[in-house]
Amino acid sequence: xxxxxxxxxxxxxxxxxxxxxxxxxxxxxxxxxxxxxxxxxxxxxxxxxxxxxxxxxxxxxxxxxxxxxxxxxxxxxxxxxxxxxxxxxxxx
Length: 92
What we know:
Number of helices: 1
Strand order of the largest sheet: 1-2-3-4-5-6
Order of helices and strands: EEEEEHE
Strand content: 25-35%
Number of strands: 6
């Protein structure tokens, strides 16, 4: 059964049965030691985008960035980075 860890504020870690790890809005709490297969950032506030807390990451997805936040998100260091606009559909 998949596991959900509430890390505090708006931060979550989801672990799938096959071991894949997804972080949502990394910011505070414990449990960032598991390497991330995917990081979802819902918006560019400091309390939702602390991707450096995650041990390592293979893919970063920034949801609904807006123009001012898009520039910041484009500078993030991630091997595979997607910036998604509202209504956009992607395959993972």
